[in-house]
Fold:
Amino acid sequence: MLAVARRIFSQKGYHATSIHDLIEAADIARGTFYLYFESKRAIFDELLDGLVTTLQAQVKRIEVGPDAPPPIDQMNATVDRVLKTLLDNREMARILLREAVGIDSDFDRKLSEFYGRIEAMFMGALNTGRQLGVARPCDAKVVARCILGSVKEVVQWAFVEQDPLAIDMTKMGREMIAFTLKGCLVEGS
Amino acid sequence: MLAVARRIFSQKGYHATSIHDLIEAADIARGTFYLYFESKRAIFDELLDGLVTTLQAQVKRIEVGPDAPPPIDQMNATVDRVLKTLLDNREMARILLREAVGIDSDFDRKLSEFYGRIEAMFMGALNTGRQLGVARPCDAKVVARCILGSVKEVVQWAFVEQDPLAIDMTKMGREMIAFTLKGCLVEGS
Amino acid sequence: MLAVARRIFSQKGYHATSIHDLIEAADIARGTFYLYFESKRAIFDELLDGLVTTLQAQVKRIEVGPDAPPPIDQMNATVDRVLKTLLDNREMARILLREAVGIDSDFDRKLSEFYGRIEAMFMGALNTGRQLGVARPCDAKVVARCILGSVKEVVQWAFVEQDPLAIDMTKMGREMIAFTLKGCLVEGS
Amino acid sequence: MLAVARRIFSQKGYHATSIHDLIEAADIARGTFYLYFESKRAIFDELLDGLVTTLQAQVKRIEVGPDAPPPIDQMNATVDRVLKTLLDNREMARILLREAVGIDSDFDRKLSEFYGRIEAMFMGALNTGRQLGVARPCDAKVVARCILGSVKEVVQWAFVEQDPLAIDMTKMGREMIAFTLKGCLVEGS
DNA sequence: TATGAATGAGCGTTCATTCAT
DNA sequence: CATGAATGAACGCTCATTCAT
Structure:
């Protein structure tokens, strides 16, 4: 049922998906649906909460210290993990990135908090980087949002408008990291 | 009518706005609404099309040549114009960035084309930059999406979650350009 | 619409009447119903509130004094008015007396208050009667409920189980008053 | 199971009680419920039929004759028995008096017959009383309904709106009999 | 041009009942 | 005997759209 709902929601979006669509696709009766899920909203939540939780678990704070691996390796690993998680859950990823708002105000808040936490992590990394003398002085909030936006947009483009399986995710991740770290100019220009 | 619809859509979102909301706010009769607009979808389209057209007019291809102003000045000017347009139309900007997906598949396609054109423009600029030897070799498609995503996210954050009037748009624009050009690392690190 | 709803509710009761029944009988569309009434509950309320208000207006406190008509005449007049009101609204009377409880707790309370006011009025009359030395000493609360119950039962019987138009209401009213005042025994026995 | 259903029906009323409520309270499975009862309606019937039968058994025709106890003692005894039965089954009494109408037309008819039999008994007693010269000439049908209504209303009031255990039932019964026999006026007034 | 009463397909949800195990 | 997952008809209600005036 969850798998079916995932597919339908992913194809049609939340509002355009009716209970009728879900139960027809799952070939169950109306009542059966409500036996397992409290409401349309509830199954949607259940679906997305799983991805959000998994996603958050993939993102690890970059450690600095004599025994820690080089920061760039940690970043690569995190990005690889995140992209893999999204790829493994590409239907939900599609929903998470598309159905950004407009379900209801509760959902908007939830999503906003999720992105807020990611923003906070990027800001933390930027500040650490500045203390270590490797990061440029900048408005950390704006730059954190830039990074977040880069990731969201690239992933959405790759997953929604392209065939995600045809894309070399590792390569794409490296490009995103390079852009985030160095921008698009050659150094010294 | 359009102004009223703009306000209501911006406040409540597309799905949560009913024809009743629109005609009540505009103080016209139901029939009158349908005299001027084919449907709820149609007025929403009209509203967004206006912004999209205006927005596209603000973005000018960067010229290179002996008589052209320095590229950085052109970029600053374009970003300033775009941000000003968005600020002047912040209600529609809010809608464009928050709610524009998930209305229906026709609309999604339209939006996708709009962003596609912007992506193409960024890619063009990147390629020109590389020919001039100032841009890093990179996957232009990915980097173009990164830049687009940065802008979208920052603007959405500024307009939806903050008070856009309390933000120094020029400064914010400069931060975004700096990030886009140079990333977040100090040069040479 | 109200007339139709009155008939249907009266025939089938509140729970057994569906919106479908109402709109079919009135030959209007679903939407039209909700154009005029907020909900099924609302139209039911509207129907009953009217009768309850009218009914309460018919019951006048019995006046005692040198210029007042004889109490028995006042009682007869009040009973005649009440019975006439019920007869004129016999469909709603049927509902009021049958659908005594079970709509929802709000409605139960409302009805309970209505009967409470009538009880209070009977108790007042009984106490006045005792001060004037014409009423027996008794538990006024119990006797007030007895009188109320007599009226409810007789009216329900007459309206629900008989053809109310075939009954001589004036005669029935006189019987009820006689019973209430003197019981069923011959005096002195 | 019957005891549980009695409690739940009494607390929530027929319509507001779902099969879920019943089986949860009885801690049995859905299927088990339908093993013992044909339907929700059936268990409700069974519950009420029991009380109705018991109740009818408590009401004995008043005997007149040289060896019979004084009629007033017989009446007191019958009323005491009826009130005791109702008190012992106060949950069902609550249902019988509050909710019994409006379930469906079959049930309404059944109830109507029950009250019809009681009415007939009262009419018989009144007619006997008149032959013995102790009862007033009156419309026996109306007076019988008055008596029935008195009892129903007082009992309902006592059981539903008051705490039945806090009421002196014997005293209440005597008041009702006194009212029924002598009304509320002092004799000779 | 403007109106607003009327429409009805469609929604999400409930719950008494069934039946394979 | 007992179970409880599954059913689906029916519910009350919404709202974008139409059309006679």
Observations:
- The mean pLDDT of chain A is 90.
- Residues 18-20, 30-31, 34, 39-40 of chain A lie near DNA strand E (CB under 10 Å from a C1').
- The CA atoms of residues 60 and 179 of chain A lie 20 Å apart.
- Chain A has one domain: 2-58+65-182.
